[in-house]
Amino acid sequence: MVEVKDVPEANRYEARVDGESRIAGVAQYIRTAELVAFVHTEVSPDYEGRGIGAALVRTALDEARAAHLLVLATCPFVAGWIARHPEYQDLVYQSRSRVSD
Which domain holds residue 77? Predict the structure, then answer.
């Protein structure tokens, strides 16, 4: 079982497996009042292929939704996960600025 917890003082979500104290993976973020930017996701090689990354992203996005935050996925893993899960597309931040020629 994967347990994911927000650790705001470290600006990241941490995943642990089966109650172990060892961190299996992290999703690093930068949070503002309106937006959470996911900048890096990493899973320990010992835990790869076990759904740790997906659990991190799903939990983080569900919490962003609950907090009414938009999501900026600069991390390729998070961006790819959102692309494969259209039910989270509504969270994606869309720039309001336009560049004029």
Answer: 2-91
